[in-house]
Amino acid sequence: MKKSVDVYEVRAFSRGDAGGNLAGVVLERVDNNLKQGIAKRLGYSETVFIEETGEREFHLEYFTPSSEVDLCGHATIGGIHVLKEVEGLEEGSYTIETRAGRLEVEVGREAIFMEQNEPAFYGEVDRKKIAESLNISVEDLGDLSPEIVSTGLKDILVPIGSLEVMRNIEPDFKRIEEISREYGVVGYHLFTLESIEGNTAFTRNFAPLYEIDEESATGTSNGALACYLGKYGVVEDKKMRFEQGDYMGNPSRVDVRMDGKSPMVGGEAALTRKFTIEV
């Protein structure tokens, strides 16, 4: 017998009602064997399934169209925003249980912030290999080295020398997929310290291994980037803002606070619609 499932579509890291990264949010209990199929059918870069497990505690599961992942920043921010809008979740601190661990979430009047894990650094990646997969020269890369970093999900952080180079990159997605599989990472997170609005950096994110060619806002990747920039003394500010998605027509802004060793990543969100599917 088929079951009706309500789905909420939300933009996370948005600028008001515009921009941001779309996520699907499901608040009702769904059989585990149906979740991957629902995520593939919906087609969002990530769909999050949320269950309340205790007082001020929630369990979150994240699925791309192809597989489950340990953590997702924009789906977390978006999912908690839906709880605030639909279930009347009050401002304050909450705990979420994910495959990446138990993390704190702060619900504010305008923005929502989520804790990420302390950064783990897994070593540098060959510059030539990265440049070739992006169809740029080694000289187009920034002064820092590409490096694998994780605050919940492993990404290769890739410095790009200028905003102009960043804008004109035409990635070889098949090669990026191969390199991502080789290094056991989700994908590439590109950044340049030049930006459109004078913020910390402008970024782009490619994850073809998970059937996501490019994402317009990625919380986990920017959390890792903040730690990387701090490690090398490039940025001393404890508050950073990252631009992303402008070249996709979905301008997004991701805020990161370095209150301690673990980054707090947050931003605004907007609920765009609710619809029902049969599963």
Automatic annotation (TrEMBL):
GO terms for cellular component: cytoplasm. SUPFAM superfamilies: Diaminopimelate epimerase-like. The active site is at 46. Keywords: Isomerase. The keyword Flavoprotein does not apply. Signal peptide: none annotated. One of its GO terms (molecular function) is isomerase activity. InterPro entries: Phenazine_PhzF-like. Belongs to the PhzF family. This is Phenazine biosynthesis protein PhzF. It comes from Propionigenium maris DSM 9537.
